Amino acid sequence: MTSLDTDFVRAQFPAFSEPSLQGKAFFENAGGSYTCGPVIDRLTRFYTQRKMQPYGPSEPSRLGGAEMDEACAGLARLLGVEVDEVSFGPSTTQNTYVLAQAFRTFLKPGEAIVVTNQDHEANSGPWRRLAEEGIEVREWQIDPDTGHLDPAKLEPLLDENVRLVCFPHCSNVVGEINPVVEVTALAHAAGAFVCVDGVSYAPHGFPDVAALGADIYLFSAYKTYGPHQGILVIRRALGEVLPNQGHHFNGATLYKRFTPAGPDHAQVAACAGMVDYVELLAAHHGVGAGAMHGLMRDQEVRLLQPLLDAVKGRNAVRLLGPDRAERRAPTVALALNRPARPVAEALAARGIMADGGDFYAQRPLQAMGVDPDQGVLRLSFVHYTSEDEVARLIAALDEVL
Fold it and tell me: Rounded to whole angstroms, how far apart are CA atoms 3 and 238?
């Protein structure tokens, strides 16, 4: 197959056959996607058959531990990294905070990091607090009109003092896909490590992290069809030199070094269902699992362009980010001439589930002259969204705008 079989895709998500959701179209996927059937099946099985401490001698305990290991191995395979370079935490926000604590003692006063004002606060706030330890925090700023993050403006910020560059794969309000390979090469050439927040990109096709070259890549399972977990990839060359943040006796195990608390056994095990889902789609479409990234993106680009065309020329509507679908994720933020939340409520009355607010992206909104208190209307979808749902969204927008 050369295009995504949307009917087969939607059949893997129980939400689409749930009676209470009939007649509703889901356009707040950037806040969390629907959960696929394989994840729900694994979570149910763990809680009903294997709910005890894993890795013990009894059969339920042994099987529970094996399923947790399966999740790590499957995600590593999908992301192109080593198994022990994948670890889990309660959220990406928490994982970033733990990493920032590791860098707090790793870096020396007078050394520098680079952050952006395009980020969701989770990949900005914890790093900025390193200034309390005498670390210089340099800001790579977006274009205030377009929200674009220009690599040419990063280069003057890089010198021998910079040890870390933090930026998003794409912003949760701007939506533009940043050139991770190019930015990583610039940072590495200056001797800096790279941390990429992939929360807003990974739902649109699991990336080949090894090919991107980033030292750290973070994303959220609950936005990639799974349970509420944060997934952290940290490459060995960095992970083994950062101070251990876990129990002292776990310091020699890479995937435990950045997990201060014990893992959520059931949710980690259920993450294997995310890999099951991608591999199920790949088998159905007659391609390798890695090729699903392209099929998902092609589907999203095809559905996104009509939406962009419908909103970009409207009076009193400002589209944040690019108006070409191939340059962005299908996370579309609209700045209006009125508060965004009541508009989202009007859409909800028409069966369109979206939202309005600042989405923890106050810095980029302020940089682009948008009042965070007024917020933006955010319309976001993933590959399981149908052409009919996008058409319904555009029709509803015609009514409420």
Answer: 39
